[in-house]
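Team,

Forwarding the record for the chain on the shared tracking sheet. I've put the sequence and predicted structure together so nobody has to dig through attachments.
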Amino acid sequence: MSPALTTANCLIEIGTEELPPSALRTLSAAFEQGVLTGLSSAGLSFDTASVKSFATPRRLAILIPALELQQADKAVEKLGPAVAAAYDKEGKPSKAAEGFARSNGIAFDDLIKVETDKGERLCFRSTVAGKACEQLLEGIITEALDKLPIPKRMRWGSSRAEFVRPVQWLIVLLDSKVVDCSVLGISSGNQSYGHRFHAPDAITINKPADYEQLLQEQGHVIADYNKRRESIARQVTALGKSIGGNAIIEDDLLDEVTALVEKPVALMGNFDKEFLSVPQEALIYSMSEHQKYFHVVDAKSGSLLPCFITISNIESTAPEKVVSGNERVIRPRLADAAFFFETDKKLSLEQLRSRLKNIVFQKQLGTVYQKTERIGDLAEGIANAIGADSTAAKTAGQLCKADLASDMVLEFDKMQGTAGGYYAANEGLPDAVADAIKTHYLPKFSGDNVPDAKVACAVALADRLDTLSGIFGIGQEPTGSKDPFALRRAAISVLQIILQNNIEIDIQQWIATASAQHNSLKDPVASTERVVDYLFDRFAAVYQDQGLPVEVFAAVKAKTLSSPLDFDARVQAVAAFMQTSESESLASANKRVSNIIEKSEQEIQASDFDTSLLVEEAEKSLAEAIEAKEQEVLPLFKDANYRDGLLKLTELKDCVDNFFDSVMVNAEDPALKKNRLALLSRLRALFLQVADISMLATTKR
């Protein structure tokens, strides 16, 4: 007789109507996590490394190998009253003791006595038998589904069950056994369904290990999301190469298409070459956003080719008809783009800009037209400061939002800026103006490119500084998760533009200028201070992404700087300083000096130091070392070479340590005490040329 099985392969599949493509991966990952968490919480082990999830538009499934079929028995121990209080004066069980026995369903005589750190006590011990896995699965699956991140659930038919889409079938298998359970009003079975057209009949799953293969061979479904994604990418790439081009595969589009199909078949279609006169960004937008097509560019020139690749969810016997249908659909879209482009070109950007007088930017801050006036003036000033063409910057700043009133952008909102750049070139405006209009929205997201031309940088900075100063000035700065004007993104973009282009600029000056341009602000000075603080606080997120300790940022921020480029140079210098073996001792010394000076009853200045009052050898050595280092590092600091300067200051470690080991700072002689404090103040001032190094001491303890 064979021994009873202790583990089994488990398959769970929720069959539905079409799941939303934008949420498919999220739902699949959350479902897997919910089920596995539920099993782990129930004390059921499984082969974690071999768990596999499946997700298609019609199903969420998970295969769990070597799942334990039975919970382990659980020993239960409950402590009751102390033995001394368990009997009354007559030696009979007390009410408390009898109540404890009764609450555990046993007689008083069945309780045992155990020694504890609080003395001898009554104790109840028992063993609770573990439950079978099949008894627990229904609750685990239900809880996992209930916790899925579904903003709005729906009901279908007369059922009271709620899910993102109507549930059609349910599989819950432990090896070949169907687990008797019901989820979302559907009873479990062992029948799945494949492709809606290629395999409409039920497919019997006799064991979990066969699931993926059966669906692919009999059901014409690639159930594994990643395999389906890879298949699409391979097919699209191959089709692009077949015509001497490169198919452009963007991750977001690839993910969406993968979530739309179960049997991907890539097909290539064409469109009229005449449409290539339209800005290619508009054509690409039409193909990808509206039709979910991949576009193809020439392998040598990189220019757009008059073709597209669509992913069909059916292997047609007449693929040319599928292609023809897609070509008929895309033509009106491209014709619209061409019409908008030709219509917009009949107007100058200044004429389009005049329409902005009727578009409100923000009620208290005026219209978009007024915003462009401010951007133009501010861009002109910034351009002068950074050595750019100020005339081009002002023109670009005034015209940078003009395309918001164009037909092209009204139809294709992602064309803002890009469309304006094309219209500026068509109008014959300088290249610098067209480039600035086209790129001033960059960076649009984390990791995106930033403008690299000086005129474009001036306009991009002016646009964001105008928004930041205005919104802060009317008291609508971000709070918590609310940031309707994307000020966090704007602030980080300002820093990225400055750092990546090495722009030396006093940002406080230009925020103050931007604030002064807003006539509606009650207190431009206070607004400027808040924006500056907010802007530099965003540096924390930038450095967190770089893996730098928060104390490095705090040490530099204590300097109250106004140049982001200078701020960054100091941060990188302090980060390098922290990697040295001497930094711990020197940071602690700076902290100690700071505390001593702060507690001093008299005001101490580094200029109060007098070499004639030096007595101890240790203080003489420190004074000489500081004098030498001042001569060596101050020129480096003046040239913003903070890194080399700080690293040279690490050579002071032995002198500083020897000073604190040998010299009594708070000497009885007031003159000696003041002179030693002045010497320490001089030491601290040397480090403060870069940052408040004392703030690193907490990290170094």
